[in-house]
Amino acid sequence: MDIQVRVWRQSDSSDKGRMVTYDVKDISPDASFLEMLDVLNEKLILDGADPVAFDHDCREGICGMCSMVIDGVAHGPQRATTTCQLHMRHFKDGDVIDVEPWRAAAFPVIKDLVVDRSAFDRIIQAGGYITAPTGAAPEAHATPVPKKDADLAFEAATCIACGACVAACPNGSSMLFTAAKVAHLGLMPQGQPERDTRVIDMLQAQDDAGFGGCTNMGECAEVCPKGIPLNLIGRLNSDYRKALRNSAR
Amino acid sequence: MNDFWQDGEGIADTAAPDGPIETRWERRKFTAKLVNPANRRKLTVIVVGTGLAGGSAAATLAEAGYHVKSYCYQDTPRRAHSIAAQGGINAAKNYRNDGDSIYRLFYDTVKGGDFRARESNVYRLASVSVNIIDQCVAQGVPFAREYGGLLDNRSFGGTQVSRTFYARGQTGQQLLLGAYQAMERQIGLGTIEMNARHEMLELIVVEGKARGIVVRDMVTGEITTEMADAVVLASGGYGNVFFLSTNAKGCNVTASWRAHRKGALFANPCYTQIHPTCIPESGTHQSKLTLMSESLRNDGRVWVPLAAGDARKPGDIPEAERDYYLERIYPSFGNLVPRDIASRAAKNVCDEGRGVGPGGLGVYLDFADAIGRLGQKAVEAKYGNLFEMYERITGENPYETPMRIYPAVHYTMGGLWVDYDLQSTIPGLFVVGEANFSDHGANRLGASALMQGLGDGYFVLPTTLGNYLAAGPFATVPQDHEAVVEARRAVEDRISRFLSIDGDRTVDSFHRELGHIMWEYCGMERTEEGLTKAIGLIRSLRDEFWQRVKVPGTGEQLNQNLEKAGRVADFFELGELMCIDALHRRESCGGHFRAESQSEDGEALRHDDEFSYVAAWEYFGADRKPTLHKEQLEFEYVHPSTRSYK
Amino acid sequence: MAAAAATPARTSKRTSSVLLKILMAGTGILLVLFLFAHMIGNLKIFFGEETFDHYGHWLRTIGSPALPDEWFLWIQRGGLTLAIVAHIVAATILARRARAARPVRYAHRPKVQAGYAARTMRWGGVIVLLFIVYHILDLTTLTLNPNAESGKPYANIVADFAPGRWYVTLFYAISIIAVGLHLRHGIWSAARTLGQQTARGQRIGQGIALLLSLVLVVGYLAVPFAVLTGLVD
């Protein structure tokens, strides 16, 4: 199939950037979206042009590196699918496809479609962990965890930190990301001692990183490739309120 | 024969204690020198790579009080390819009371490695396995649990005990996030200096000791020299030498290869694991291959048409005209034979022209029987997410039409040679995880890679590295030291050379061609003739690369093709060494099958009398013969026997 | 060095967005409670002029004799003003943050999944504020009321929504619908902000929010349309 892509080109963080149109011919419907861009880049290189920079690594939907807004939707039109797992069979011959980077002040563009997501790391640094220095762990079976809690914690822990939630949010908020980590650790008995400080510190880090606040629009959960549920944000809010109450005591 | 290599002196692992195997690690821990806690912050350790091994090592070393500098090429340490491991992690907890023990895990791993691994190392791995689970649970890793709240276990990779801990199909992800979070905690405390989007391009060796690395900031292109008291490589495997593999696109051998060029021996490079259940190639655009969990073989039946060239749809081929070849050849293990055997059998039927799908490179994995027996609901509950993944990639519904699978390169057992302390032949250079060669012999068992990565990083390295650092802090190396300047210049020269060639072929086109050569001649089945031919092809392709490659852009910016060029250049040299290693090992063992060495019924034939050693290679230059050093393997506890799955 | 990953982007600490949201939820709930009380009072108009005017008078004497006349009313007015100011201040801070957090728009504007109500919270809020100002000038201070007879709310309302002044009724109706939309998202959003956290609860919460908003809209529109159609005169 033959398509056109309109890609955001920006040579570095100081460049203003613009959309540029390219023809991509003879693409197999079985190719992935990134493989389509590979084909485009091979052509650009041989034409002496600058290939399109984009983040990608595992190409199997788990590392969270790929990050493109395709036709206005983070990770493209297929639900619960990362860009690397999106295949060209979901497009039609002759389509014009817009490809843009994540847009958020907390995720500045480095080049073309590559953005800096280190703000997510800073949120984790603030408290997205359980303090358990190596060697100090008790026997694994010492603390049973109800299966229901373990399953819910796992579901929340499947977040890949791709940042699609932020890219889709009209407020540029990272609440779904933070909520997922707070829920994962807060559901485990091991996570209880730091539960209050964790939620307060992570939310502070999130605010300080320049993310917006949540207005419960739900755009984040719509684009999340791992299906992190929106209601975890309610859990985060509830944890925060309890933490404030406990710290006031 | 000596057109390709020369024989050198033997090498021995002098760090390993002898005596009863059960207490060797205890005794090593006791004899290891300790570093005074007050001195630790004065000691700097560089850790390259942030996967299970690197992440756990960096966090643990920082917790112990060392100053750690960590590097990864991804944008955050949480994306290292350990994250993609699906199946699980083994540990000898014996929670199922099914007769498991440290000794049995040790035994299974030595045997599974086809008697090409060190007993001491494997025993230690098995014994720390239990601590790993404790550690991960304490970090909040959401392992699968039973209704009583205790950890669930499953049997994995054909073992007869249930010792595999798992978190649905995302065990690697959850374990890595545990290590990542521990690391981020230390970054927040200022004990780890994290450098994401940085790539190690050279090792700095001063007076015989590893003292630093040269790195490139992949965003700005800035080259810096980073100094330390010790360097730890946790940079993963080299499966991407095949271009198509289940590795992440960025996985590369550069860190290991640069160390190898500086004197670290490279052991058993030819041992590569080919995983049987991957999604086949769909065309020339293919950029990577995707693995599907081996657990699919528990209920799926593998078959191909009986007749070559049968182009009918799978549903139109009657039972009588199908060949369930694994069940036919291996009646007792059937579809559950080990990875290497399943992979080679698939290759054989495809070579006979009976392969299915585009290009005839695929076999069916059919769930019709399982759906009939258990019902679609039950199959969906067990494999739903894998079926979805398959459908997402291929556009075919595996509930209706059989899956197509084909083997793909998945893991590399070879790596930098290390002693019992995980120290390479360069003092102060330690190697952990898939980057070293130490624990899996010629073949890795399922759910053992995660165990090794975390065992090395959490428990082994922090002890053995302390023994080395007890002699430090070492004298500060000035930036204008000859070795530093030379290493830096080598990096800069190489970058400007890539940029100045300005040829007419892309880096990827070379990589793809190298991959074809490797897969064809150094893949599932190797022959003397093929390997000899491959070495010639690689050499001429490498020459062509240095004449005709085109790397766009400059060195002072984010330049993904420049990064790739450096990695592919190293893959050329590694690929050649892999072929040489495969050529010299005239036996079949584990992931290395030499067509000349098979039994009458086509099974792998080891030659323990001749090849019961680790082949450790020394580098002398891209155009000079490498030297082979042999480390003889002794088997005091598990006596070599022939694997049989018939 | 790229120790950037370890250095926070800002040194000053921001007031927590979630705290601001809790403030908005709390003040929002107060205002909704007031709207219901106000609506119930309004509907007394259907019981006739005497009852309605009597109710208006009673409002001024709540708390009597413990409180002097109108004291309760002024306390309530003060409380409502504080709530509205806090609600608006928090909203403004959050809106400015949101704008700063998303400085560049997408060239390809996405289809949004959130409803119209959720997307119009900010502009809707501004319309509601303008309406409140007009509404006070009209029926509290009577500055803009055509009848403007103190102590005769029934007559004032009838004069206000007289058929000849259809544009006033139209503006009132539009404003009330804006209030309804604002609450349709706002009521559920407040529940979420205060910790509602199940998917089922979300469906129920959104249903309740829709129901309450509808009740308010119908309740408030009943009066002007009753005047307009002559049901009340």
The percent range for strand residues of chain A is: 5-15%
Strand order in space, largest sheet of chain A: 2-1-5-3-4
Q: Indicate the structural class of chain A.
A: alpha+beta
Radius of gyration of chain C: 21 Å
Please name the fourth-level CATH homologous superfamily of chain C. Fumarate reductase/succinate dehydrogenase, transmembrane subunit
How many separate helices of chain C?
Answer: 8
Assembly category:
heterotrimer
What number is the mean pLDDT of chain C? Answer: 91
N-to-C series of helices and strands of chain A:
EEHEEEEEHHHHHHH
**Which pair has the most extensive contact?**
A-B, 81 and 81 residues
CATH-level-2 architecture of chain C:
Up-down Bundle
* Share of helix of chain C, binned: 55-70%
Total domains of chain C: 1
Poorly predicted sequence stretches spanning 5 or more consecutive residues of chain A: none
Organism (chain C): Paractinoplanes ferrugineus
GO cellular component, one term (chain C): membrane
InterPro entries (chain C): Cytochrome_b-558, SQR/QFR_C/D
Protein name (chain C): Succinate dehydrogenase
Write the layout of secondary structure elements.
The complex is a heterotrimer of chains A (249), B (646) and C (233).
Chain A: E1 3-9, E2 18-24, H1 33-46, E3 69-70, E4 73-74, E5 96-100, E6 109-111, E7 114-115, H2 118-125, H3 147-157, H4 164-168, H5 175-187, H6 195-208, H7 219-223, H8 232-248
Parallel strand pairs in A: 1-5
Antiparallel strand pairs in A: 1-2, 3-4, 3-5, 6-7
Helix pairs in contact in A: 2-6, 3-5, 5-6, 5-8, 6-8
Chain B: E1 6-7, H1 24-31, H2 37-40, E2 44-48, H3 52-64, E3 67-71, E4 89-90, H4 102-112, H5 119-138, E5 164-165, H6 171-189, E6 192-195, E7 198-206, E8 209-217, E9 223-227, E10 230-233, H7 254-261, E11 266-267, E12 272-278, E13 301-305, E14 322-323, H8 325-329, H9 339-351, E15 363-366, H10 368-374, H11 376-394, E16 403-412, E17 415-416, E18 429-431, H12 449-469, H13 482-501, E19 505-506, H14 507-521, H15 528-548, E20 549-550, H16 560-584, H17 608-611, E21 613-618, E22 627-632
Parallel strand pairs in B: 1-22, 2-3, 2-10, 3-6, 10-18, 19-20
Antiparallel strand pairs in B: 4-5, 7-8, 8-9, 11-17, 11-21, 12-16, 13-14, 13-15, 15-16, 21-22
Helix pairs in contact in B: 3-6, 3-12, 4-5, 5-12, 10-11, 14-15, 14-16, 15-16
Chain C: H1 17-43, H2 49-61, H3 71-101, H4 116-119, H5 121-139, H6 153-160, H7 166-193, H8 199-228
Helix pairs in contact in C: 1-3, 1-7, 1-8, 5-7, 7-8
